[in-house]
Amino acid sequence: MIYFLLRRLASALPVLFVVSLVSFVIIAIVPGDVTAEIAGSDSTEIQRAEIRERLGLDRPLHEQALRWYGRLLQGDLGQSFLLNRPVTEAVLERLPVTLSLAGLALVLAIVLGVLLGILAATKHGTWLDQGSMSLALFGLSIPDFWFALVLISVFAVGLGWFPSGGYVPASENFWGWAKSMTLPALALAITQMGVIARMTRSAMLEVMSQDYIRTAKAKGMVRRTVIFKHALRNALIPIITVIGVMTGVLLGGAVVIESVFSLPGVGRLIIGAIQRRDYPIIQGGLLITAAVFVFVNIMVDLAYGWLDPRVRHGR
Q: Is it true that domain 88-312 has CATH number 1.10.1240.10?
């Protein structure tokens, strides 16, 4: 298992390098000048040139890249041009918001998707099967931002059950945190819920046709035990394999949902940095988000390797 973990860690380093390189190159070629944001719209070209020289933006691209990677190897993501604070501090301050949103959305997607998939598989061919899959197809078809607006209109504005925006840290008020995150997490989870429901149904139908399931039924084992202890345990294996990819999708979708619900997460921070050309924030935010995504994938690989020894032995 240790060798398996080392292999996964080694394969993660090139991914992070490519992410950092691509983000650096894209930012370098995108038109715009951050010095106008710093000095103001009425500043002179001389003032902007002085700021550009102070920030090192007047140097050749390869020199800027070497400086960037030199600081990165020391664990320094640089200083924000506009926030006047370290990038690491600014990103990590907002990271719990994004992680709690994506994490809660992942839990909702898995729980609701698995329950719908089990219901559809155990009631195969009935109206419950068709209704469950119709609900899953609905989740796959609607845009998450549109669903977010519907949730706000119904449950925040209409019924007043949940706030329409804002964030309450769980450390201050857990119930307030739960109320502030329920609608955003549900809006973010709806698409992935449909994916998991369809995967669970297909996997359950395949597992339920296996000989050991028929043997368990023939022995008179309780139906609930057959479904949840034997069938579901094996049906969840393909779902575990996509959790890593699903986490990346949720982290990306969090950018839109954070904007809709005014959540102070990393997504809104990066969007604001893009609009104001704050390059260190963009690079650092993307790199830290990619690191979280890679870490989750490694954990998923370890879990899958623990469930299936053939994976960790490279078979």
A: no
